[in-house]
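INPUT
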Amino acid sequence: MTTRTILTVDDSRTMRDMLRMALASAGFNVVEAVDGEHGLEVLSAHKPDVIITDINMPKLDGFGFIEAVRVDDSHRATPILVLTTESDPAKKERARAAGATGWIVKPFNPDKLVEAIRRVAA
Amino acid sequence: MDELEAIKVTFFQECEELLADLEGGLLAMQDGTSDGETVNAVFRAVHSIKGGAGAFGLDPLVRFAHVFETLLDSVRSGKVDASPDLVALLLRASDVLADHVSAARGMGDVDEALSHAMAAELEAWDGDGGAPAPAAASATASASDDDFDLSAGVAAELDDMDFGFTPMTISVEEQAGADEQAAAGWMVVIQPKSDLYRKANESLLLLRELERLGPIETTVDDSALPDLADMDPEASYLTFKVKLTTDKSEADVREVFEFVDGDCDLTITPLMAGDAPPAPAFEAPALEAAPEPVAAAVAAPEVDVAALISAATAAPAPQPAAAAPVAPPPAPVAMTPAAAAAVAAKPTTAAAPAKAPLEAPGPGQSVIRVDPERIDRLIDLVSELVINQAMIAQRVAEHGIPQSSNLAIGLDELEQLTREIQDSVMAIRAQPVKSVFQRMPRLVREVASMVGKQVRLVMEGEGTEVDKTVIERLSDPITHMLRNAIDHGLENPDERREVGKPVEGVIKLQALHRGGRIVIEVTDDGRGINRPRVQKIAVDKGLIAPDLQLTDEEIDNLIFLPGFSTADKVSDVSGRGVGMDVVRRSVQALGGRISISSRPGHGSTFTLSLPLTLAVLDGMVVEVAGQTLVVPLAAIVESLRPKPEEVRALGPTGAVLAVRDSFVPLVDIGSTMGYRANAPDPTDGVVLLVEGEDGGKAALVADNIQGQRQVVIKSLEANYQQVEGVAAATILGDGRVALILDVDAVINLRRREAPAPKPTEPMIAAE
Amino acid sequence: MIDQTTAVGERRELISFRVGQQEYCVDIMAVREIRGWSPATSLPQSPNYMRGVINLRGAVLPIMDLSSRLGLGSAEPTVRHVIIVVKVQERMMGLLVDAVSDILSITDDLVQPTPDVACDRVRSFVRGIISLEGRMISEISLDRLLPEREALAA
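OUTPUT
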């Protein structure tokens, strides 16, 4: 099986590093973006298999980012997992309405993260 | 685990930045900027701190950040008004949050009582901060599942947030009892809706997940399949019926469908041992092969029609409404061009008012993280290279090699390259003063509340870059200047009212580059220096002669004299054991200058200037009484060989030099520093005309000038201590240590030691 | 810290050296290196026992004339003089002495208290006296040698 590429979009360096650590050790290739706008640029360059995105970000937030991915013909079928907190079901629903495939609850543990990817990745 | 530790370091670095962003945003809100992006950035800062803290299990930090974030979320959604009182509270909360971060880092403690009180205050604000009734109802709405009108009303109320707010009914609880039964497995009927595919979920992946729980037998019902012509390739027409043999609970099965909850109709019924398998069995198509996304529906026509018909017969009747989740509003699948344009336009408009964080790399830009020690090492090496290069140049010059020779030309090029390398390397270590500035708003708040004054701090030039060695030394003098400005510069609120000034005093903290140095200015709009009083104090304390004529500027700068303190009583704030004289001395030790100017009634300005780096210095190498000394080039106005008629005696031992229209006191470096007892005849030596930090001039007498050279600054204090008259040391080309002169201190030393009738005679003797 | 009381019986190593006609020693753990005398750059505004500073591989090392510090008169350094580089409280310092004698291995019960007859200055610099094979060797208390750091918060 070829190595899957995961795009992580998060304005927090800490969170990006955490994701990278978990994903890299699970054998994924990781590309990163610092906000939604940057995410769209990286997306066109890397064609990731799965996207993991934060919601609260400057420039273009997670909702806007997901919507923009879903209207793009070449990425509309790319699974998107949103990073969310337990405390905010409304945000989760809004992310789903925008087109999110699934979600990861922060703080995540690496096993749950990999499991969530497995569940959405073809 | 090293990697995790490294991320933790990153986290705390990021916390520093986020705390600065938080404070910056709150200060902007205080100034009346409460646009969406500012409030969002403030929210995000706390949210990100909480997120990272959660990852590291820093519970007290998470708890406090959570309460803080909750209130900020209400502000963001417009439920709570960003009143000045609230912003003031949020600023204080940001200080407590900063304490929590420090504590989590193992640096300092949190005042538990304060933290609890603050958390309570934040929570209470959420409660009685005038939250509108409909918002309060939202809690009820989300709990009740059928009052659709009400929740729609709430959704309208929250239209800022544009929540797709829909109560969900999930039947897990009702069916939970089934878990208790010893089921042999589960009959799972999945009827995906188009939304499932629009979110890039896949029914085949769901089947694959189910298969992880146990062997499955799948049948597909395509009875809903329309004619090919009418088919929407992205719509869903199939129903999957899966017989799962497993000992897993219903909850485990349901978990497979977590992500598609609401996007498919799902029924799960226990399969009792002995239940006949649904006939005929149907192989799930191509489960191992990666299925084409969205292809499931299209692939269906290949299925044996007869099998499908019998499957349809076996399919259970539609489930009662209770089990069917209310569908959320459909996602905008195809955006209108206008809407798409809006999304595309959003970043530009949102980015415009936002202060782009300096650290954030631009799109596509990558950041390399390097251990600071490696950079320090590199800078040391380049510094040695500079010394070495200078040494070779000196040797070449000594050998009388003509300037036009290839060797000399090559050496010039080498010098230029060396300089460029040095500049580039220094630029790596340069940092914006922001890291120092960001600590100041808190200081100002604390000092202001301590002395009962209202102060607004305005900061400018936070992006001004300066070498790391200087950054570390800025904090103390800035702290003192600010304290002094609040404590002594600004009037009490009553006084301000009387003279018709706004009650709130304004202090401006500004950084800029000027003449190859970094300049920090602290300006207040207070009363200015009371010159008659300052002069009287200086006279009373015996610091200056009573009849001394001083310019306004000279009077202002009397506050830097040792033993001077304008405070009638030592207050908590300025009286922390350090006077401005000590501040001046430590600044001078760094090759810096500090001075004050003021306009009575309008305020004062402290000006601090420091070299951009403490690693290297351009200096003039001179010989004095057999010693080799370096005089900082920045202090030298010009060098000259005095003619006898330019030297005039003044008093019993003093002498001045006539320079154009003015007379400048002559200061023999050798005798002032104690290298020799008596000053030689100045006309035998060389004079360096220097300018002190208060603008006064002096003529330093040396025996000989060796030349101009860049030298590497070595600390004398690292292994010894500060020496009066000496700024630092360096190592010259011959390997010996040479001292770098502290020009101001030399002038002061000579003043003190000269048995002149006036202890502080003005620098400029005559006009 | 070298000045901490060491349990009786625990062995310590000391480097002994000559200052004028007297013998002194310091704990070997404080000694970083021993090097020959090289001319120092004199420090103005400093006590006369501070001989100046030298370049120690890029760092500025202050040199103390131990003879002068102990009140035995200023040394006239020659090429035979030696600098013992010691580390005291994170600071490096060179001690100018006449010559290094040897390395002693002692237990603390060999160290006797400094007799009352000594002057105050000596008493404050000398940790104790070791009697060994008829020699009298005074152990220097390095912490006390340095001039007080100029207190900034005066």
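end of record. Residues 13-25 of chain A form the longest helix (13 residues).
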